[in-house]
Amino acid sequence: MNKDFRIFYLAFVLVIFSMCTTIPKSSVSSTIETCEDLLVAMNKKYKGKWFDQFTFIQETIRINENGKEGKKSIWYEAIDYPKKFRIDYGPITNGNTTIYDKDSAWVFRDYKLKKTEYMPKEFLLMKGGLYHLTTKETIEALSGYGYDCDKFRTAELNQRKVYVIGADRGDLKSKQFWIDAEHFYMVRRINTQQGKVVDVVYSDHVFSNGGWVEQVVKFWVDEKYVQKELYKEINTNPQLGAEQFDPNSYGEIKHWSEQD
Fold first, then answer.
1. How far apart are the C-alpha atoms of 129 and 12, rounded to whole Å?
2. In the structure, what pLDDT confidence band is assigned to residue 30 with cuts at 50, 70 and 90?
3. Between β-strands 186-193 and 211-213, what pairing exists: parallel, antiparallel or unpaired?
4. CB neighbours of 13 closer than 8 A, spacing ≥ 6?
5. Span 92-116, mean pLDDT?
6. CA distance 32 to 46
7. Is the whole model's pTM more than 0.85, yes or no?
């Protein structure tokens, strides 16, 4: 076997190997034709691997009437899937916090409970909550929140293929989730709040502790750009105790950012 033939043969083998290794990936992708198919694929890839909790410090930037960055503030946020979520607004010593759990919210101002209300954080379901549920339970939860799971399609966002749950092509008003087709993280969600269409885009995802976390979030309300959020000091293994999400313990324990 002469040198030229050996080079040709090696190149041929590499091309065949490359083709073989890419076929299963596209073959698996092509089997995702329904919302249920997507949820099954997501669970197969990440269930038991995706982190259960994460914390981060968020720089919240309001966008002014001229479309420029305006007022900035710091929020401290913590999530415990499937349904626990806590936001501390501004310095944690101010006592301005909202705690969410099981679709309810407890709103504190100056350490005093101002109100309790029904306020589901539906996005927690597709950001990581589904890995604590069966596929059937996730579909039931989506339907209960008002997402039409029979409406399922592909689209493109920022030059990446995505799956869309809940809306037909051209519909940017109905409740919907957009999921990256390769890594299965959420890249967009749309719903209506108080008669206004809220459009949220997630970007700059990083892989950590078996799952993905966005680092930049942008909000549009009725097509007007209103807010930008930047995640910093992301921790996907914070070991949060249940008391951090217990309204009855609020103000009586150390904040998670102060614990060793």
1. 45
2. low
3. unpaired
4. none
5. 97
6. 16
7. yes
